[in-house]
Amino acid sequence: MLHAIGCVLAPPFEFAGTRPACFFYAFISGIIGFPILFALVLLPLRAGLHRLMPYRTQRIHAIVAGMVRTSRARHH
Questions:
Q1: Handedness of CA 17, 24, 40, 12 (dihedral sign)
Q2: CA pair distance 48, 61, nearest whole angstrom
Q3: Other C-beta atoms within 10 Å of 4: how many?
Q4: Distance of alpha carbon 72 from alpha carbon 23, whole angstroms
Q5: Which residues contact 16 (CB under 8 A, 6 or more apart)?
Q6: Disulfide check for 56: which of 11, 14, 46, 60 has CB 3.0–4.6 Å away?
Q7: C-alpha atoms less than 13 angstroms from C-alpha of 13 in its C-beta half-sphere
Q8: What is the secondary structure of 29-61 as a DSSP string?
Q9: What is the pTM of this model?
Q10: What pLDDT was estimated at residue 62?
């Protein structure tokens, strides 16, 4: 939802030429994209952290997951 509102408020329009169309396409892409990201990236990352670091706190898991996601984003 925030991405859709951001696309409406701040040009350039990423998805369409008009504000309502941009909102619609950004909103739909967020609804479709997040579950895919969650299932393909975040759940396996969580399972891997629990397997490799079983006795660590959730804060440590969050820090390591953030570092992994940041390093993966820089490579693509």
A1: positive
A2: 10
A3: 19
A4: 28
A5: 22, 24, 25
A6: 60
A7: 12
A8: HHHHHHHHHIIIIIHHHHHHHHHHSTTS-HHHH
A9: 0.51
A10: 86
Q: Residue holding tokens 């859709």?
A: 4
Tens digit of pLDDT for each residue in 8-38?
666 655 667 777 877 787 788 788 888 888 8
Give the number of residues written for the chain.
76
How far, CA to CA in Å, does 74 sit from each of 46, 49, 69? 20, 20, 9
Per the CB < 8 A criterion, the answer to whether 46 and 61 are in contact is: yes
Cβ–Cβ under 8 Å, residues 23 and 7 = yes
* Whole-angstrom distance, CA of residue 15 vs CA of residue 37: 19
Residue 57 main-chain phi, psi, to 5 deg: -80, 165
